[in-house]
Amino acid sequence: MKEKQRHWLNTLISTWIIGLLLITAACSGGKANSSETSKDTIKVGVLASLTGALESYGKQTVEGFELGLDYATEGKREVAGKKIEFVVEDTETKPDVAVKKATKLLEEDEVDFLVGSSSSSDTLAVLPLAEEYEKVMVVEPAVADSITGENWNRYIFRTGRNSSQDAVAGAAAIAEKGVKIATLAQDNAYGREGVAAFKEGAEKLGAEIINEQYADAASTDFTANIQNIISSKPDYLFIVWAGSNAPWKQLKDMQVEDQGIKISTAAQDIASLKTMDALIGMEGFSIYYHTLPDNKVNDWLVEEHKKRNDGAIPDLFTAGGMSAAISIVEALKQAEGDTDIDTLIETMEGMEFETPKGPMKFRAEDHQALQALYAITLEKQDGIDHPVPVLVKELSMEETEPPVRNK
């Protein structure tokens, strides 16, 4: 009897153990399936200024990124059998907020790529996180040279142009031997690095920089700066500025051009162009305007943007956001969907891809995208509510190639 009881008890225990193992296996199987599902989705975290002084920049970038995904994947938002999703976070144009939001994207959303940001200061604050978490960060549209210069790390790739590329285009428009130039810029990384790069490019062409003025980035009164510039009697005033508080009206009110000083600057987004009536006839440069590039990607962007926005034309940062998205999709196509960081970096170094501005190429040394810029004049055209950049010459990616400035 005792033997039978012992046998029955052993059978019961064995059955219980087998059941427990089956349950555990089933649970483990469920986790494995969940893991496999997560690997079928590639996530991109987009950092942008959706509020504050650079709000229009951020919103354009996000819209352009979405358009770029649709263009590069033919509307499927899939590559190599994997879905692509993106999560957007507002940096508020505050570096500490940018770091907080980037950390959230990396830790909670577990993104495979970062994109952004609208501000160079925000972007510089986030760069170390890309290295810490070993994730590719595609910088768009921040332009400070130090992003792909002294603060660069191997995880950083930039589709946006940098200050030195702007400088080459700006210098090409006005600098030559014997020309005296004064500069006015925001007193921040964007402004100071922009002037330093312009000065280098202009002096190579024989021009002399005789006065450098810097104003608080939030300033709306430039009287002292402009008076100082007028007193130095330059041939040109070259301006590096971003944001809605540009000095154009005050330059007109103080009759700078009437005193023989020609103003030159970047023809940037449409909001900026709407404030530049005082600069009609100006010789300068453009990063993007929808009528300047002549290629099928830009044709698609203009047509599709009009469809989605009641006939409105795409703007500077829309094209930039689109370029960032195309670069990521192209990298994933070439890597066959592999998000291994070393594979991605190896794939993207030297990679060429088509954008609304034409071909771009990630330079292997610093991952800066080489790209075309445009020498232009500003003209008033009937039926258009802002001065229009008219092409004088397209400056190829070879002509605008900046110095390598990283370590």
From TrEMBL:
Residues 41-379 form the Leucine-binding protein domain. InterPro entries: BCAA_transport, Leu-bd, Peripla_BP_I. Keywords: Signal. Coiled coil: none annotated. CDD domains: PBP1_SBP-like. It holds the Pfam family Peripla_BP_6. It comes from the Bacteria. The keyword Signal applies. PANTHER family: LEUCINE-SPECIFIC-BINDING PROTEIN, PERIPLASMIC BINDING PROTEIN OF ABC TRANSPORTER FOR NATURAL AMINO ACIDS. Belongs to the leucine-binding protein family. This is ABC transporter permease. It comes from Bacillus canaveralius. The lineage of its organism: Bacteria, Bacillati, Bacillota, Bacilli, Bacillales.
